[in-house]
Each structure stands twice: as structure tokens, then as C-alpha cells.
Amino acid sequence: MERTVDAVVEAVAEAAPDIRGGLIGRRSYRDSANASGERQLAADVYADQLLEERLGGIDGVGEYASEERQEIVDVGEGLSVAVDPLDGSSNLKSNNAMGTILAVYDDDLPAAGETLVAAAFVLYGPITSMTVAREGVVTEYELVDGEMQLTEDAVELPADPVVYGFGGRVPDWPDDFESYARDVERELKLRYGGAMIADVNQALEYGGVFAYPALESAPNGKLRLQFEGNPIGYIVECAGGASSDGSQSLLEVEPTGDIHQRVPLHVGNESLIERLEASLD
Ligand code: FBP
Q1: Does 200 contact ligand 1 (Cβ within 6 A)?
Q2: Alpha-carbon distance values, 269 to 20, 62, 205, 224 (Å)
Q3: Helix (H), strand (E) at residue 200
Q4: Quick check: pTM over 0.90?
Q5: Are residues 193 and 128 in the same domain?
Q6: 31 phi and psi angles, rounded to 5 deg
Q7: How many angstroms is it from 212 CA to the middle of ligand 1?
Q8: pLDDT tens-digit profile of 7-42?
Q9: Does the beta carbon of 89 lie inside 6 Å of ligand 1?
Q10: 165 CB less than 6 Å from ligand 1?
């Protein structure tokens, strides 16, 4: 299993320069929508196909699933990989940060977060970096031509939180979330860029909280459990933080059987997530 996880993580690192390079000329929308009914960019489709090819070919990988396709692909026997090939892809038009998210489950998909054996994200910022969580430890690398160069070997959320970022339109926030948000904005600085990976990485670097909460118009929020909620919850918890769907850890959320299940997502310093859960009671 260890070797398969190594191979999957390395394959995503090696794919990153190709995904980043492939953004050029792929900023237009296609006619089709993705499995969640959202418009797809040519870059989303390109990144998905590339990752299916690279990850699906690894010995010890049994299933490949992606936010960009309806069906789970059977690729052999072994671990299941779920990816968001281009998180925050609507930022491509305005040339802002985006990411790639990886979840590796030791179970068939859709799987519970508690069966994760690794999770990682690539952040396409001014520098391409990769953050990997395994066995309770979070490690950060810079990617140079797809090679992982260590920058921090035990990432921990700073104890004193500084930043917050909350998704969704304010009038669409339920009252209990809005009153929590009003408290938080009196204490912390706003950092919201519209790509979850980039916004979560602000909380990892500076301490704080990121949420894409339940909305009046969408009680399960916007983000997806298998591709976003579970891996991000795992990474933040391994870095000493906490995650929540509003009442429990994201890793405890039971999969409904829909690979595209959505979940309200809140991650950050433990004290801020405890306060959130108390506010939503
Ligand atoms: P995609 O994976 O389709 O890009 O959607 C996810 C996402 O872009 C997150 O990265 C981000 O937090 C959120 O949607 C932004 O949504 P909004 O545009 O409502 O702020």
C-alpha cells in the first residue's frame, strides 16, 4: 500500500507542470456541464483526462473518480483515488490561483473520510507548491519541473489565528452562520479568493478559518465530500486543526452513495471550529 501511495503522490506532482502548462489556451467554456451541473472549461477536461491516464495506470489503484465526470472508473485492484483536477477553475478567466486536490481511500468509492490513507493538494500560485498529508503528518514541497523539493516537514496551523474566508453570498447565509461570521470578522482579516485550495492554504499558513457553509438555497453547501470535504478535512486535521460539516468532523460524514454528494465545509483552528459548531446548534 505504501508504495502505491508514493506512486500516486509522485504522479500528481509530475502531472502538475503539465496541468499548469495546459491552462494556456484552455480558458474557454465547453458546451457540456460537469457531473455537478457546472460549466466545464477546456482546462478542467484536459486535467481530468491527464490524471485518469497517469493515476489509472498505477499498480495498486483500483478506482479513479473525478469531480469532472459522472461515473467512477474501474482501473484495476486496490486503493481508490478521487481528484478535483482543477479546483477554483472559474479563477482561470481572471488569472488567479487554482489547485488540484487528491484523496486516496482504502475503500471503494464513495468512501468515508476515515478510510483515507493520504490526501494532498497542488497550489498553482506564483510558485507551484504541493502539500501532502500522510500518517498524521503534513509536508509541504515546492514543485520544480514536477520534482518535489521539501520546504516544510511538519506543517502545523499557527496557534493564533489571523485570517478568514467564507464562501456564498451573504444574503444566502443562514442566520446562525451569519452571526458567527459577524463575530469572526471583528477578530480576523478577510482572505477570500474564490479557489478553496488557495483560501485554505491561507488558513494553514497564518492560522484562521475557511468555510463554504450551508446556504438557504443549498442546504448542503457547494463543495463535494469525496473530492473536497474529505481530503481538506484530513489535511487540516493532520496539521493540528479541525474540520466540521456543522456538527461533526468532515471525516465522520457518512457517504450517501452519491459520488458527487455535497457537504457544508468548515476548516481551521480548533477553537474557531468549536465556536462554529456551538453557533450552529
Ligand atoms: P470548482 O471545483 O468547480 O472550481 O468549484 C469549487 C470552488 O471553485 C472552490 O474552489 C471555491 O471555494 C468555490 O467553488 C467558490 O465558489 P464561489 O464562486 O461561490 O465563491
Answers
A1: no
A2: 31, 34, 11, 21
A3: helix 196-206
A4: yes
A5: no
A6: -75, -30
A7: 9
A8: 999 999 999 999 999 998 877 777 677 766 677 888
A9: yes
A10: no
